[in-house]
Each structure stands twice: as structure tokens, then as C-alpha cells.
Amino acid sequence: MRRGQVLVIMDKVNLSQQQTQVATMKRDYERYKELYEVGGISKQQLDQAKAQLDVAEYALNSLDENTTLTSPVNGVVTARNFDPGDVAGQLPILTIESINPVKVKVNVSESYYSQVVKGMPVEVLVDALANESFQGTVSLIHPTLDPIAHTFTVEILVSNSDQRLRPGMFARVKMNFGTNERPLLSDRAVLKQVGSNDRYVFVEKEGKAIYTLVQLGTRINDKYEIVSGLNNGDKVIVQGNTGLIDGTEVEIVE
């Protein structure tokens, strides 16, 4: 469907009847004006006749505008609620959806929230088209997260000039976050400093627990990325670390 294309032509019986009614009411109104000028009716009666004529003309214009329905957008008809000859009810006669571009919605783990940005290119694979790949772009990142699933919704726009992609198709999305070279550490090892937002761990060195501040990155399930604070080979205490103080003698059980 193209914008402006005629979709439905309604029966003009009601339009013809309304035109006849408006013509009759116009003649009556002119006659009422003559009567008013000679004192045959009151101003209130004349005003009532004018108001009734205005309502009838508005109804006529509405019928005239809705006799021929045209498409407001370029798209496809996704629902038809009436057949030729039916009397239209409260439901829309047709539903038209614009499908170029198409919008893909995907739920992403909250651990990637800081890595998804507007304008980010993504790959969309569609099962119904034998996993054919389409290129898309992140258009919207919803600001609220699902507290149960720990996910957030991302909207992606995909060009669909050939209209092969249709509403309701199942798709899978690939996002490239690059390679992760930061070490991951169990969240049980990370402690919060009382009275501040600092995070710290205890590292075992020569039989002692050493208080070590760390900077955290993205949380991935039950692990944190460690941005800074630890070195390769550090032995981080994961269990029994609550209640430790800097310099406490410890024995590490592998």
C-alpha cells in the first residue's frame, strides 16, 4: 500500500440522505429568518434552527470525508475486520502497518547495559528466512529494567525496502561488545567499605590478608569485571573474608 492509495469506498446512501436533510434545514432556516424579521418567531427559536443546521452540516462533512478511505502511510494491510456489504461497527475497518523500516525488540541482560549505545550496529537473524542476516541499528534503549529477569529492552531499526521482513517474525540479534580482557572475580570476594562506595577485596600475600581497593566494571551474572586494583597472580580470598582486617594471618586452602 502507498500513502494516499484508496482502500475503501463506503456506501453513499447515508451521505445522500444527509445531503437531503441539510438542504431541507437550510430552506427552513431561511423561512425562520423571514418570520423573525416580521416578529413571527423569537430570537431563541431562530438560534435553535441555526444550531440544528450547523450540527447537520458538520455531520454531512464528516460523512463526506469518510466515504472514501485512503492509506495514511506506506505499508501493508495486517487486518481486515469487515467484508464488502458489511455494516461498519466500532472496530477499525482495516489495520495498516508501516514496515520500512521494521522495529525489532530484544531483551538484553542488565550486565551489558553500559555497553549498549544508541546508533550501535547489530546483526539480525530471521528464522523464517533461513537465518538470513540483516543489518540493524540500535534506535532506543529503554531506561527501566525488569527487576525479575534482570534485563532491559532495546529497540533496533532494520531497513526493509523489499518488504521481506514482516511483523511477528521471530528474530535473533547479535551484538558485538568486543573482546573482554578484564579479569572476572566472584561477587562473594568483593566487599563494600562502610560509609563510602569503595569496593575492596583481601589478597593473600605471605600468609596475610591484605586490604586492597578495586575498581569494578560490568557485572556478569555472579561475577564482576575488575578494572584496576589487582595484578596477575594475585590470590583473592573468596570465602571467610568477612570480618578480616588488614594484615590478619590466614591460611589458604586450595
UniProtKB/TrEMBL annotation:
Question: What does the UniProt keyword field contain?
Answer: Coiled coil
- Coiled-coil features, chain-numbered ranges: 15-66
InterPro entries associated with the record:
Beta-barrel_RND_2 (IPR058792), MdtA-like_HH (IPR058624), RND_pump_MFP (IPR006143), YknX-like_C (IPR058637)
Domain Multidrug resistance protein MdtA-like alpha-helical hairpin per the UniProt entry, residue ranges: 14-57
Q: Which SUPFAM superfamilies match?
A: HlyD-like secretion proteins (SSF111369)
Gene Ontology MF annotations:
efflux transmembrane transporter activity
Give the family per the record: Belongs to the membrane fusion protein (MFP) (TC 8.A.1) family.
Q: What's the protein name?
A: Multidrug resistance protein MdtA
By which gene is this protein encoded?
mdtA_72
